[in-house]
From TrEMBL:
Classification via CDD domains: SDR_c
Record-annotated membrane-spanning stretches: none
Superkingdom: Bacteria
SMART domains named among the record's database cross-references: PKS_KR
Keywords annotated in UniProt: Oxidoreductase
Annotated ranges, domain Ketoreductase: 4-192
Name of the protein: SDR family oxidoreductase
Pfam families, alphabetized: adh_short_C2 (PF13561)
Similarity remark: Belongs to the short-chain dehydrogenases/reductases (SDR) family.
Amino acid sequence: MSKGVVIVTGASRGIGRACALQAAAKGYAVVVNYTANQVAADEVVDAIVHASGQAIAVKGDVAEEADVLAIYAAADKLGPLVGLINNAGVVDLRARVEDFSAARLHRMMAINVIGSILCAREAVKRMSTKHGGKGGAIVNMSSAAAYLGSPNEFVDYAASKGAIDSFTIGLAKEVAAEGIRVNAVRPGLIDTDIHASAGAPDRVVQFRSAIPMQREGSADEVAKAVLWLLSDDASYSTGTFITVSGGR
Protein backbone atom coordinates (compact mmCIF):
# COMPACT_ATOMS: atom_id res chain seq x y z
CA MET A 1 0.00 0.00 0.00
CA SER A 2 1.65 3.24 -1.15
CA LYS A 3 1.52 6.57 0.65
CA GLY A 4 -0.03 8.04 -2.49
CA VAL A 5 1.15 9.14 -5.90
CA VAL A 6 3.99 11.58 -6.53
CA ILE A 7 4.71 12.94 -9.99
CA VAL A 8 8.37 13.72 -10.74
CA THR A 9 8.82 15.67 -13.96
CA GLY A 10 12.07 15.23 -15.83
CA ALA A 11 12.77 12.08 -13.85
CA SER A 12 14.86 10.06 -16.28
CA ARG A 13 18.20 11.55 -15.23
CA GLY A 14 20.06 13.71 -12.74
CA ILE A 15 18.20 15.30 -9.86
CA GLY A 16 14.82 14.09 -11.12
CA ARG A 17 16.02 10.51 -11.18
CA ALA A 18 17.38 10.81 -7.64
CA CYS A 19 14.07 12.29 -6.48
CA ALA A 20 12.08 9.47 -8.08
CA LEU A 21 14.23 6.78 -6.48
CA GLN A 22 14.12 8.39 -3.05
CA ALA A 23 10.36 9.01 -3.27
CA ALA A 24 9.80 5.34 -4.06
CA ALA A 25 12.07 4.29 -1.19
CA LYS A 26 9.87 6.33 1.14
CA GLY A 27 6.75 4.49 0.02
CA TYR A 28 5.26 6.71 -2.66
CA ALA A 29 4.01 5.40 -6.00
CA VAL A 30 5.99 7.39 -8.55
CA VAL A 31 5.14 8.74 -11.98
CA VAL A 32 8.48 8.96 -13.78
CA ASN A 33 7.97 11.65 -16.41
CA TYR A 34 10.37 11.98 -19.32
CA THR A 35 10.45 13.87 -22.61
CA ALA A 36 12.57 11.76 -24.95
CA ASN A 37 14.79 9.20 -23.22
CA GLN A 38 12.45 6.27 -22.67
CA VAL A 39 15.32 3.86 -22.03
CA ALA A 40 16.57 5.94 -19.11
CA ALA A 41 13.05 6.39 -17.72
CA ASP A 42 12.38 2.65 -17.95
CA GLU A 43 15.63 2.01 -16.08
CA VAL A 44 14.40 4.24 -13.23
CA VAL A 45 11.08 2.37 -13.15
CA ASP A 46 12.86 -0.99 -13.22
CA ALA A 47 15.07 0.03 -10.30
CA ILE A 48 12.01 1.07 -8.28
CA VAL A 49 10.06 -2.09 -9.09
CA HIS A 50 13.11 -4.27 -8.34
CA ALA A 51 13.18 -2.68 -4.88
CA SER A 52 9.50 -3.62 -4.40
CA GLY A 53 8.24 -0.11 -5.19
CA GLN A 54 5.57 1.08 -7.58
CA ALA A 55 6.27 3.30 -10.59
CA ILE A 56 5.29 4.00 -14.17
CA ALA A 57 7.07 5.93 -16.92
CA VAL A 58 5.01 8.55 -18.73
CA LYS A 59 6.26 10.49 -21.74
CA GLY A 60 5.35 14.15 -21.94
CA ASP A 61 6.76 17.61 -22.61
CA VAL A 62 5.66 19.85 -19.74
CA ALA A 63 5.65 22.87 -22.06
CA GLU A 64 2.74 21.29 -23.97
CA GLU A 65 -0.59 21.52 -22.17
CA ALA A 66 -1.93 18.37 -23.81
CA ASP A 67 1.09 16.43 -22.59
CA VAL A 68 0.65 17.73 -19.05
CA LEU A 69 -2.97 16.58 -19.07
CA ALA A 70 -1.85 13.15 -20.30
CA ILE A 71 0.73 12.89 -17.51
CA TYR A 72 -1.93 13.58 -14.93
CA ALA A 73 -4.41 11.21 -16.54
CA ALA A 74 -1.83 8.43 -16.16
CA ALA A 75 -1.18 9.46 -12.56
CA ASP A 76 -4.93 9.38 -11.78
CA LYS A 77 -5.02 5.71 -12.75
CA LEU A 78 -2.22 4.95 -10.30
CA GLY A 79 -3.97 6.42 -7.26
CA PRO A 80 -4.63 9.66 -5.37
CA LEU A 81 -2.07 12.39 -5.94
CA VAL A 82 -0.24 13.59 -2.85
CA GLY A 83 2.76 15.35 -4.32
CA LEU A 84 4.41 17.01 -7.30
CA ILE A 85 8.15 17.43 -7.75
CA ASN A 86 8.35 20.11 -10.43
CA ASN A 87 11.83 19.23 -11.65
CA ALA A 88 11.76 19.34 -15.47
CA GLY A 89 13.91 22.11 -16.88
CA VAL A 90 16.43 23.03 -19.54
CA VAL A 91 19.51 25.14 -19.95
CA ASP A 92 21.10 26.27 -23.20
CA LEU A 93 24.63 26.89 -24.43
CA ARG A 94 26.68 29.50 -22.61
CA ALA A 95 26.06 32.93 -24.12
CA ARG A 96 25.75 36.60 -23.30
CA VAL A 97 22.37 38.33 -23.42
CA GLU A 98 23.15 40.18 -26.65
CA ASP A 99 23.54 36.81 -28.36
CA PHE A 100 20.23 35.27 -27.21
CA SER A 101 17.73 34.35 -29.89
CA ALA A 102 14.00 34.67 -29.41
CA ALA A 103 13.67 30.93 -30.02
CA ARG A 104 16.07 30.20 -27.16
CA LEU A 105 14.13 32.46 -24.80
CA HIS A 106 10.74 31.02 -25.76
CA ARG A 107 12.00 27.47 -25.21
CA MET A 108 13.58 28.34 -21.86
CA MET A 109 10.50 30.04 -20.47
CA ALA A 110 8.05 27.52 -21.96
CA ILE A 111 9.70 24.57 -20.21
CA ASN A 112 11.13 26.09 -17.04
CA VAL A 113 8.31 28.48 -16.18
CA ILE A 114 5.11 27.74 -18.08
CA GLY A 115 5.61 23.98 -17.76
CA SER A 116 6.06 24.22 -14.00
CA ILE A 117 2.97 26.38 -13.64
CA LEU A 118 0.85 24.05 -15.78
CA CYS A 119 1.95 21.04 -13.72
CA ALA A 120 1.22 22.87 -10.47
CA ARG A 121 -2.19 23.90 -11.78
CA GLU A 122 -3.20 20.29 -12.33
CA ALA A 123 -1.79 19.25 -8.95
CA VAL A 124 -3.85 21.91 -7.18
CA LYS A 125 -7.00 20.72 -8.94
CA ARG A 126 -6.46 17.27 -7.45
CA MET A 127 -5.02 18.01 -4.02
CA SER A 128 -6.82 21.17 -2.86
CA THR A 129 -9.52 20.69 -0.24
CA LYS A 130 -11.42 23.35 -2.20
CA HIS A 131 -11.75 20.78 -4.99
CA GLY A 132 -12.43 17.80 -2.73
CA GLY A 133 -8.82 16.75 -2.31
CA LYS A 134 -7.00 15.82 0.87
CA GLY A 135 -4.06 18.17 0.52
CA GLY A 136 -0.50 17.50 -0.49
CA ALA A 137 2.80 19.14 -1.33
CA ILE A 138 4.46 20.74 -4.33
CA VAL A 139 8.23 21.15 -4.51
CA ASN A 140 9.50 23.38 -7.30
CA MET A 141 13.05 23.18 -8.60
CA SER A 142 14.65 26.60 -8.50
CA SER A 143 18.38 27.26 -8.61
CA ALA A 144 21.11 29.27 -6.93
CA ALA A 145 21.24 30.98 -10.32
CA ALA A 146 18.08 32.85 -9.33
CA TYR A 147 20.13 35.02 -6.94
CA LEU A 148 23.57 34.69 -8.57
CA GLY A 149 22.33 35.79 -12.00
CA SER A 150 24.68 33.56 -14.05
CA PRO A 151 26.33 36.46 -15.95
CA ASN A 152 28.14 35.59 -19.19
CA GLU A 153 26.57 32.13 -19.15
CA PHE A 154 22.86 31.65 -18.53
CA VAL A 155 21.13 34.89 -17.56
CA ASP A 156 17.96 33.60 -19.21
CA TYR A 157 18.06 30.41 -17.15
CA ALA A 158 18.62 32.46 -14.01
CA ALA A 159 15.64 34.65 -14.92
CA SER A 160 13.45 31.58 -15.40
CA LYS A 161 14.40 30.35 -11.94
CA GLY A 162 13.73 33.78 -10.48
CA ALA A 163 10.23 33.40 -11.89
CA ILE A 164 9.95 30.03 -10.16
CA ASP A 165 10.85 31.68 -6.86
CA SER A 166 8.08 34.26 -7.27
CA PHE A 167 5.63 31.58 -8.34
CA THR A 168 6.50 29.45 -5.33
CA ILE A 169 5.79 32.29 -2.90
CA GLY A 170 2.55 33.31 -4.59
CA LEU A 171 1.10 29.84 -4.99
CA ALA A 172 2.09 28.91 -1.43
CA LYS A 173 0.01 31.79 -0.08
CA GLU A 174 -2.84 31.05 -2.48
CA VAL A 175 -3.37 27.43 -1.41
CA ALA A 176 -2.05 27.43 2.17
CA ALA A 177 -5.57 27.18 3.61
CA GLU A 178 -6.45 24.38 1.18
CA GLY A 179 -4.08 21.76 2.55
CA ILE A 180 -1.28 22.27 0.02
CA ARG A 181 2.26 23.28 0.89
CA VAL A 182 4.43 24.80 -1.85
CA ASN A 183 8.18 25.09 -1.43
CA ALA A 184 11.30 25.09 -3.56
CA VAL A 185 14.87 23.85 -3.58
CA ARG A 186 17.74 25.90 -5.01
CA PRO A 187 20.60 23.62 -6.11
CA GLY A 188 24.00 25.14 -6.67
CA LEU A 189 26.85 23.46 -8.54
CA ILE A 190 25.66 19.86 -8.83
CA ASP A 191 27.43 17.03 -10.62
CA THR A 192 24.90 16.08 -13.32
CA ASP A 193 24.99 15.91 -17.10
CA ILE A 194 23.14 19.24 -17.47
CA HIS A 195 26.56 20.90 -17.78
CA ALA A 196 27.42 18.81 -20.82
CA SER A 197 24.11 19.74 -22.42
CA ALA A 198 25.15 23.37 -22.00
CA GLY A 199 28.35 22.68 -23.89
CA ALA A 200 30.47 22.86 -20.72
CA PRO A 201 31.26 19.31 -19.56
CA ASP A 202 34.15 20.64 -17.44
CA ARG A 203 32.04 23.29 -15.69
CA VAL A 204 32.00 21.46 -12.35
CA VAL A 205 35.79 21.34 -12.24
CA GLN A 206 36.03 24.94 -13.42
CA PHE A 207 33.80 26.37 -10.67
CA ARG A 208 34.57 24.00 -7.78
CA SER A 209 37.05 26.39 -6.16
CA ALA A 210 34.35 29.10 -5.95
CA ILE A 211 32.29 26.94 -3.58
CA PRO A 212 33.01 27.56 0.12
CA MET A 213 32.82 23.80 0.77
CA GLN A 214 35.31 23.31 -2.11
CA ARG A 215 33.26 20.61 -3.80
CA GLU A 216 30.27 20.08 -6.01
CA GLY A 217 27.03 18.62 -4.71
CA SER A 218 25.33 15.40 -5.78
CA ALA A 219 21.87 14.76 -7.14
CA ASP A 220 21.16 12.62 -4.08
CA GLU A 221 21.94 15.54 -1.76
CA VAL A 222 19.45 17.74 -3.60
CA ALA A 223 16.83 14.99 -3.61
CA LYS A 224 17.08 14.62 0.16
CA ALA A 225 16.09 18.26 0.56
CA VAL A 226 13.24 17.81 -1.91
CA LEU A 227 11.91 14.75 -0.12
CA TRP A 228 12.04 16.50 3.25
CA LEU A 229 9.88 19.33 1.90
CA LEU A 230 7.52 16.77 0.42
CA SER A 231 7.19 14.93 3.73
CA ASP A 232 5.09 15.54 6.82
CA ASP A 233 8.30 16.49 8.62
CA ALA A 234 7.95 19.83 6.81
CA SER A 235 4.30 20.20 7.82
CA TYR A 236 4.64 23.86 8.89
CA SER A 237 6.85 24.95 5.98
CA THR A 238 5.35 26.62 2.94
CA GLY A 239 6.57 29.38 0.65
CA THR A 240 10.12 28.65 1.71
CA PHE A 241 13.39 27.63 0.06
CA ILE A 242 16.21 25.23 0.84
CA THR A 243 19.47 26.20 -0.84
CA VAL A 244 21.72 23.23 -1.53
CA SER A 245 24.82 24.99 -2.79
CA GLY A 246 27.79 24.28 -0.53
CA GLY A 247 27.60 27.79 0.88
CA ARG A 248 27.57 29.81 -2.34
